[in-house]
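hiii so um. not sure if this is the right channel but i have a protein structure encoded as tokens and i wanna go backwards to a sequence. like what aa goes where. can anyone help
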């Protein structure tokens, strides 16, 4: 088989995408450290250059000062005239590194030796206290000038002799460059070692993340257990957040699986009954019995429509619990609007409908759509399966909680209050789906509340408690 020549390029592109420079911790850390080391190298290099320049200056200045003093010691008076016996060894030592110039001026101001145009800016009172060193320019070359004065004790001459010694600065600069380059070499070597050590340290430090990645990749899609790899302290909170997310995802998947299983079971029954009625209708000749069968089909179809609608409402409530932002809601306004929309214009029996608002009106943070759905189900449940002649919707609040209560004078629930809020929980002769109270309970939990059911004095009360 012929191998494509573009395969290595494709693999390289995949690796490059995997090694995204913008999102790589390794590259970020190394880049930041490189910038810090580069800045530090510049600062240290400048400091090294300054230190090398000062060290070279001080070393050559000591030699220059010593040379000026040596020349001063070789000045003497002979025949009433100031005379110099040049210290050859001293001048030779200085001249081995740079050009050297000197001048000796007697107390009269006459140059008795050296270069007459060599000048010094040092003041006499300074030179009489010791050697004065300064920068200067001689023969268009930068020089360092050492000036010192020597007092002549001979009464024939009497006064101060000034000795000026100058040396060019090329050797100083060469020494400073050499010291600086050596310092920069050490800095560069240490920086390279630091980068290598950092790269290794980052790779070593990220190994636990690679183990976590490997554990997640090797898992089955349905394995949502907490991660078993012990995370480093720095990413422990991240791993705990992932574990918590997987736990919530597992709970949600379990809830949806149970919901789908229950929904499939509940829908299968009315569909089978509807199919049987259709078969009966097909085999029945035109007669009164056929009208009864059509009525049953209509009833089953209506029941299936209600069940489908409530199943969709249940799924919507579960979804909105985590996906919708909470907003302030006026419970008086919300309950009044839901009550007006939920009560049909005609009922099969006389039922007194009452609404009791709260003063002042409670305000809760919640999802208005979910709360309307929950209250609508409570009212519909009370009208269809509870209220004989009276239904009251009331609003109330106490410390930290508000509630919407639906009360009726029906016969209560055919199953225990603890079971009645489970999906599809209903009595043996109930024709409902058993989802109304389950939807309300889901909405209450999403609002950090609960459903409270009580019966007292022939009145059944279902209270939707909400956190304020």
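sure thing!! here u go:
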């Amino acid at each position: 088989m012929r191998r494509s020549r573009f395969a290595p390029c494709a693999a390289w592109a995949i690796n490059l995408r995997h090694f995204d420079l913008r999102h790589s911790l390794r590259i970020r850390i190394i880049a930041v450290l490189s910038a810090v080391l580069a800045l530090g190298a510049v600062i240290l290099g400048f400091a090294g250059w300054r230190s090398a320049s000062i060290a070279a200056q001080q070393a050559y200045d000591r030699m220059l000062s010593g040379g000026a003093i040596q020349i001063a010691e070789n000045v003497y008076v002979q025949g009433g005239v100031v005379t110099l016996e040049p210290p050859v060894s001293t001048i030779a030592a200085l001249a081995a590194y740079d050009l050297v110039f000197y001048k000796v001026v007697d107390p009269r101001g006459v140059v008795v030796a050296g270069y007459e145009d060599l000048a010094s800016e040092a003041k006499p009172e300074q030179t009489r206290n010791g050697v004065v060193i300064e920068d200067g320019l001689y023969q268009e070359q930068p020089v360092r000038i050492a000036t010192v004065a020597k007092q002549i004790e001979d009464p024939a001459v009497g006064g101060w002799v000034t000795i000026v010694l100058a040396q060019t600065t090329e050797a100083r600069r060469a020494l400073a460059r050499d010291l600086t380059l050596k310092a920069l070499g050490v800095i560069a070597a240490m920086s390279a070692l630091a980068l290598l050590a950092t790269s290794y340290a980052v790779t070593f430090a990220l190994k636990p993340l690679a183990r976590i990645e490997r554990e997640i990749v090797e898992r089955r899609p349905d394995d949502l257990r907490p991660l078993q790899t012990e995370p480093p302290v720095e990413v422990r909170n991240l791993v705990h957040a992932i574990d918590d997310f997987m736990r919530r995802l597992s709970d949600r998947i379990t809830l949806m699986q149970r919901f789908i299983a229950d929904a499939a079971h509940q829908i299968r029954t009315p569909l089978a009954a509807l199919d049987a009625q259709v078969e009966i209708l097909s085999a029945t000749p035109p007669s009164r019995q056929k009208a009864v069968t059509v009525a049953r089909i209509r009833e089953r179809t209506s029941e299936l429509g209600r069940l489908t609608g409530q199943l969709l409402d249940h799924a919507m409530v579960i979804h909105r619990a985590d996906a919708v932002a909470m907003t302030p809601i006026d419970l008086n306004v919300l309950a009044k609007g839901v009550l007006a929309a939920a009560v049909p214009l005609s009922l099969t029996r006389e039922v007194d409908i009452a609404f009791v608002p709260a003063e002042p009106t409670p305000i809760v943070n919640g999802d208005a759509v979910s709360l309307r759905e929950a209250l609508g189900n409570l009212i519909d449940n009370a009208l269809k399966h509870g209220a004989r002649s009276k239904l009251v919707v009331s609003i109330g609040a106490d410390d930290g909680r508000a509630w919407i209560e639906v009360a009726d004078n029906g016969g209560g629930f055919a199953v225990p209050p603890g079971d009645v809020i489970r999906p599809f929980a209903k009595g043996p002769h109930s024709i409902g789906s058993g989802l109304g109270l389950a939807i309300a309970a889901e909405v209450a939990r999403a609002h950090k509340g609960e459903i409270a059911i009580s019966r007292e004095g022939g009145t059944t009360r279902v209270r939707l408690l909400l956190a304020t």
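oh and Residues 25-73 form the longest helix (49 residues).
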